[in-house]
Amino acid sequence: MAEKIKKIPTHIAIIMDGNGRWATRRGLPRNVGHREGVKAIERTVLACLKFGIKYCTFFAFSTENWKRSKEEINGIFDLIRDYIKKEDNIFEKYQIKLSSIGYLEPFPDDLKSALADMKEKTKNYDRMQVTLALNYGGRDDIVRAVNSLIKQGNNNITEKDLLDQLDTKNIPEPDFVLRTSGEMRISNFMLYQMAYSELYFPKVLWPDFNEKHLYKALKVYQKRNRRYGGLS
Ligand code: IPE
Ligand code: IPE
Ligand code: MG
Hints:
Layout: E1 11-15, H1 19-24, H2 30-51, E2 55-62, H3 70-84, H4 90-93, E3 96-101, H5 109-122, E4 128-136, H6 138-151, H7 159-163, E5 176-179, E6 198-200, H8 211-222
Parallel strand pairs: 1-2, 1-5, 2-4, 3-4, 5-6
The chain binds 3-methylbut-3-enyl trihydrogen diphosphate (2 copies) and magnesium ion (MG).
């Protein structure tokens, strides 16, 4: 990783996929894959910090993931809660602001309070912002935003009005969206916000993702020519 990266994306968003396959291939329960997936989040946050990436968003639980078994869902919730409330957490250690997108209401109280607590503790940090997408769906985000605009009495809105109501209102749109495990789909992630994101689908399963994979991804991003419909 000797070569310097010149064009660093401001916001990188990651669809972390392949935890289940990683575990199944080893004859292990799916939740072991999720546990390793949390370690990959930690590695990736530290690597983003090193590369100077300001915003990093992780898709951790989608509005469709409720279709999985209770055991798997509760296992994921426990892992997220424990990760957020860890004594030696990287958020406080490296002054990283923690935020979330998604509809939190259906989550267990212990997870919600751990999240609220860490958000409060890190709210003034500006070195980097890590956002967890929890019970997040791109369609749900848009529908909730539209409903609050209706509640405010609007009957004619602009794109800016909608952007200002989305869960991502305080985060720039993602420059670079990466999905691991080789699946090439968006799975209801930030649908509105990804209109001009650069997409990248490395084959690596999420639990194996490390700084070298991120470096390789950033090298790919260097070569992209973002035209936004214009000419270059
Ligand atoms: C991603 O890994 C984590 C979540 C969706 C919570 P998966 O659990 O989807 O892993 P695969 O796709 O089954 O391998
Ligand atoms: C997308 O992965 C959601 C998260 C990474 C949280 P899934 O594994 O749930 O997506 P599909 O079912 O393969 O589209
Ligand atoms: Mg998957």
